[in-house]
Specification:
single chain, 432 residues, 3 domains, 9 helices, 19 strands, 27% strand, rod-shaped
Length: 432
């Protein structure tokens, strides 16, 4: 079949600028990811990427805040700056994106010569243009507009089978359609692109991509392993997020607010049921002015039907923090034990003459309240019978065995002082 003979002379042939189906390569989204990857693959950023993962893994595995947090903070500031630079670079590339083709092959030129194309908004490219004439028989052909690309102006490029995208130092992006080029023109283009810095070539981006993937996968595995229970600090931190609650101790004076004030503060962050009993003991220390110093107890909670709800490990230390720490889910099940109910302690402390009791031990700097629930005493030493109105009395001289809810007020730093053991309510059952 006869057809029009194609002119393959590189000195006179013009390549049509058909880049419509390649326009996606110059789209804003495509340029965003290319600019982001370009910034990320700079050597200093690769080193900092590895350093960031190294200290992040160390932080998740071992903690060591004093060593890891400062480095990670510096890396964070750097990455914020890199993100800002990447966004600025992306904006410049979007404004400077162009379509371009070989106007003609000019082997005597030091750089590439491209035909003027249209920009992102359809405006013709005319900056830095030069006019050339191409001999054509007796008369010269019409003047054509060209755009020379000097050697060294291409900072980096992306070359695929059908296109080549040139990113210039002037923050312009030229998209070349390679489908209509001859082998000689492709070779000429390759020779010119070989002068581009190694950091701007595809082999560098491929190696950098492999490095980034390896660091990410290995670092991600170490972080995931540190999240396994008992394998790292991250696991404990995640457990705390699930099981730990903290609240400020606002009612911090035992004289004024009693035990109910503490429970009121805890209920701001934890849904404590009304029915509570001891799992261990209730141990509270306070200063002579009534300010609470420490608190340690573990409680079981039950609903109205008597079913177990949760456990609550409560601790407080004024020297360390002004917050109460509550750990949940310490036990999966428990049975309600009336003899270890917390309610008698709350009621007893609210009516007992606590301030007057500790004033009997002048010169002491710390006092305590200890409660185990109902106890049996085989001695009347320190026993005080407390009624619901706050009045108390000593036990009868001829009785020596008692049982009941016992609230001991004592001096933790002086074992020679006999504790005041308040039994509440005062109606007792005699122990035969």
């Amino acid at each position: 079949m006869a057809g029009k003979k194609r002119n393959t002379n590189p000195q006179t042939r013009e390549t049509p600028g058909n880049t419509k189906d390649l326009s996606c390569e110059n789209s804003g989204t495509s340029l965003f990811w290319k600019a982001a990857f370009h910034v990320l693959t700079r050597p200093v950023n690769l080193v900092l990427y590895w350093l960031s993962w190294r200290h992040l893994c160390s932080l998740c595995r071992y903690g060591r805040l004093y060593r890891n947090v400062p480095v990670l903070a510096v890396c964070l500031v750097w990455w914020l700056g890199a993100i800002g630079y990447g966004l600025w670079l992306w904006g410049r590339y979007k404004k400077g994106r162009r379509s371009a083709v070989f106007r003609k092959l000019l082997p005597w030129e030091k750089g590439l010569v491209l035909a003027a194309g249209e920009g992102a908004e359809g405006a013709a490219v005319r900056a830095d243009s030069a006019k050339e004439t191409v001999p054509g028989g007796a008369a010269e052909t019409e003047m054509r507009e060209t755009k020379p690309i000097p050697e060294g102006s291409v900072k980096w490029y992306v070359k695929r089978r059908h296109f080549c995208q040139l990113f210039l130092k002037e923050k312009e992006v030229l998209l070349l359609d390679l489908r209509g080029l001859t082998g000689e023109e492709r070779d000429f283009l390759d020779v010119k692109l070989s002068a581009v810095s190694f950091l701007g070539k595809g082999i560098w981006r491929a190696a950098a991509g492999i490095f980034l993937a390896a660091v990410t996968l290995y670092g991600g595995r170490l972080v995931a392993e540190s999240a396994v229970p008992y394998q790292g600090k991250l696991a404990w931190y995640l457990d705390d997020l699930k099981d730990k609650r903290t609240c400020t101790l606002k009612h911090d004076n035992i004289y004024e607010w009693g035990i109910e004030g503490i429970l009121e503060d805890v209920r701001e962050k934890v849904n404590l049921p009304e029915a509570l009993c001891l799992a261990t003991s209730f141990n509270l220390h306070f200063a002579p002015d009534g300010e609470i110093i420490t608190l340690d107890t573990m409680l079981y909670g039950f609903d109205e039907k008597g079913d177990f709800v949760d456990s609550y490990l409560i601790s407080y230390n004024r020297a360390h923090s002004g917050k109460i720490t509550v750990y949940l889910h310490g036990a999966s099940s428990a049975s309600y034990d009336e003899s270890r109910a917390l309610a008698p302690l709350v009621e007893g402390v609210s009516v007992m003459p606590l301030r007057e009791t500790v004033e009997e031990w002048k010169g002491e700097e710390c006092f305590g309240i200890l409660y185990y629930g109902s106890r049996i005493w085989y001695s009347s030493e320190g026993i005080r019978l407390l009624d619901q109105d706050g009045g108390w009395q000593l036990p009868p001289y001829d009785q020596y065995s008692f049982s009941g809810y016992s609230i001991s007020v004592f001096c933790p730093e002086n074992n020679d002082l006999v504790p005041a053991r308040y039994i509440y309510p005062w109606t007792l059952r005699m122990i035969p």
